[in-house]
Amino acid sequence: xxxxxxxxxxxxxxxxxxxxxxxxxxxxxxxxxxxxxxxxxxxxxxxxxxxxxxxxxxxxxxxxxxxxxxxxxxxxxxxxxxxxxxxxxxxxxxxxxxxxxxxxxxxxxxxxxxxxxxxxxxxxxxxxxxxxxxxxxxxxxxxxxx
Length: 146
Fold this sequence. Notes:
The protein has 146 residues and is mainly β. The chain contains no helices and 10 strands. Strand 7 (95-102) and strand 8 (105-113) form a beta hairpin.
């Protein structure tokens, strides 16, 4: 979990998400990340609001732990809609990757974060070869509180 320690704090910025029909919606995003249980767990809450409003478009909670036997991260995430998923993540260099199967294909995320910037995108593939980017966000760390 030491490699993810710099994620801790509050992050904010903007992003976009597109639906399968190509409609693109912009949002304002906040990520609140807290280390728990003596640094063995990261608790991440993300809230996306429709651009320029207080209307919540997306709200999720994720729990990250490290599995030394698999040498991968176990991720359990929950949406406000009641949906949940389990995924495995791993680090290559400074990039964190995770993916999971959904109806009709696979979703994968790529996250590049350092001490001050967070850039993440999500992709979907129905065949594992061609990937469709459906989400991207760029955040900055709130230095006032972190």
